[in-house]
Amino acid sequence: MGSVALKDIRKSYGAVEVLHGIDLDIADGEFTVLVGPSGCGKSTLLRSIAGLETISGGDIILDDTKINTLQPKERDIAMVFQNYALYPHMTVAKNMGFSLRLSKVDKDEIDRKVRAAAEILDLTPLLDRYPRQLSGGQRQRVAMGRAIVRDPKVFLFDEPLSNLDAKLRVQMRSEIKELHQRLKTTTIYVTHDQIEAMTMADKIVVMRGGHVEQIGSPLELYENPASVFVAGFIGSPSMNFVRASAGADGIEYADGHWLGRPAAAIAPGRAVIAGFRPEDMRLADTGLPARVALVEPTGAETQLVLRTGQDSLVMTTRERVTQKPGDLVHVVVSEGKLHCFDADTERSLAPGAAPA
Amino acid sequence: MRHDRLLAYAMILPVVAAVLAFVVGPTYNVATLSLTKVVMGMERGFGTFDNFRALTADPVFWLVMKNTAIWILGGTVLCVTVGLAVGTFLALDSRLTGWLRALILLPWVIPDVVTAMAWKWMLHGQVGIIGQTLQDTGLTDRPISFLGDPQLVMWTLVVVLIWRKMPLVALILCAAIRSVPDDQLEAARMDGANAWERFRFVTIPNIAFSLTAVTVISMIWITAEFALPWIMTGGGPANASQIMATYIYQQSFEFFNWGVASAMSVINLLMLVSIVALYLYINRRSWASEGSQ
Question: At the top level of CATH, which class does the domain B49-284 belong to?
Fold first, then answer.
């Protein structure tokens, strides 16, 4: 069992509050990803759960037990660090068995558990090597092995893939995901990479400036972003935003062209921020006029950068594009794919969107 | 090409000449002198172990060896352990340790002679402030002659030596401890290590290189230290604090007994060489060297 509940977590350094009351429920076995830009407090939150930081207020509850003031070792939580943090003077086997050795586990027992973990992670041939003799990906696996050996209630990952090259990152991403599916241990994973968040998470927590911006499954966040921030953060290339206003028959661009119908009725005349994803745009005979600024074929898709009025729009299409830079085109937004946000609060105006 | 080579040789020539003149030359001289019979300052025949025989036959030699062992081994071990303790304390983050890190170097910048004279007075049997304080507080009822008691004098010298040499050791180890990666210490906390276990299993292995280097360096410093014991006791009372350095000085420049002095110097040299060799051997294989197995 390993369900985690965070209730109104606050953390201050002196007079500066960096976490402003975080509430979060994580079910047993769930893979939760904390995602957000640098300085949003995601790592601080993770370190607070680990017990490496003391919180200034709120409760951390692990399986109905309050663990606020417990030492890290008493929490039954294991953590994988960004820089692996392997002990350079110990072999892979010693690194993995260190926690068991500290808790005075029998030598044969340690050996058995280390071998079992090494088997899972394909580390068996490397058990006698030192960390310096390993590649980045292997070190990363040893760091995970060190966590697995303890068989904890919760795994914490602090940006574990940020030191790996792009190819290895994709590979390790699926390894971590597979590992989770195999062990079914509750996992909390911090990253600033929204693709990692989208591909791995059961539940994504988007954070910004010490607040939780939105919690939901990857597709929920993608399809119903609660704010301009979430909409812009999730998805690549990111959503297009334009200033618009509500007309009698839907949302109109600044120059009066019709963009689409909002999900919920909006009082005519109200200023909104309209958002639409690059892949939800189509070229058409009529619609919003724009000039092609850039054509970028990526193989399967083509990415077009368009200019209209003050705005620069990005659209992607799977169709062959014959237009050249400088050509005039018309674009429309697919039915039901237009997102509307309040012009001031930047919160979604869709029905059922979480209030600010 | 040839021109470049000549230039290269020309440029290292001064250093080679200096090393030959000031290191190799005198060493060779002392080594041959130790194998030469010397009578009344006159060299009488090369190729004899008489000097070594005379040296080891003298009971003072064995006393000197014992004192030197206390001086070098006791001094080094205490210097490094006390330095490690102080360095660990200085590595903590606080305003106090920030100031102390600067202040602790004071003993290091005071000249040897001043240190020796000041301590000599403070340790004086009748008028020394240390003995006085011990008496005033009732810890002893009679004056202690720290430098006059043959049982105490060697260890008293070691204490002064520590006071003088430990600060730099502490500072070097403090710097090494502060460079131990935080995430390793945090990983150890997650692994369940308490403060002592983190120090023992993470900090110490991480500073192992500084630790061995500092041990060998202090060993060499202490072996070479002359002014402190010479000024404070001059080897007395009755050779009770005679160590190699003072003994060699006394034999050569007070008794003009160059044969014995040079024999002692050779023993001293062999000792230093073995210390350095040990250091190189320990550092030869290490977990930090890439690809070694």
Answer: mainly alpha
Q: Report d(CA A39, CA A91) in Å as an integer.
A: 35
Cα–chain center distance at A255? 36
* Contacts of A129 by beta carbon, 8 Å cutoff, 6+ apart: A91, A92, B293
Does the beta-carbon distance from A52 to B205 stay under 8 Å? no
Distance from CA of B176 to the nearest CA of A (A): 15
Contacts of B186 in chain A (CB under 8 A): 52, 79, 81, 85
Cβ-based contacts of A52 with chain B (< 8 Å): 186, 189-190
Q: Residue B142: helix, strand or coil by DSSP? A: coil
Give the CATH number, domain containing residue A104.
Answer: 3.40.50.300
Sequence ranges of the domains in chain B: 1-34, 49-284
Nearest Cα of chain B lies from the Cα of A76 at a distance, in angstroms, of 9
Give me the tens of pLDDT residue by residue for chain B, a chain 293 residues long: 678 889 999 999 999 999 999 989 888 888 888 888 776 666 667 767 777 887 788 888 888 888 999 999 999 999 999 999 999 998 888 888 888 888 888 888 888 899 888 888 888 877 788 888 887 887 777 777 778 788 888 898 999 999 998 999 999 999 999 999 999 999 999 998 889 999 999 999 999 888 988 998 888 888 888 888 898 888 778 888 888 888 889 888 888 888 888 888 888 888 888 888 887 887 776 544 444 33
A108 and A156 belong to one structural domain:
yes
Residue A58 structural domain: 4-229
**Residues of A with Cβ-Cβ distance to B192 under 8 angstroms:** 72-73, 99, 102-103
Model pTM? 0.78
Interface test with B, best of A46, A49, A99, A129 (most B CBs within 10 A): A99
Domain final position from A229, A261, A287? A229
Which of A315, A87, A353 shows the shortest CA–CA distance to A215? Answer: A353
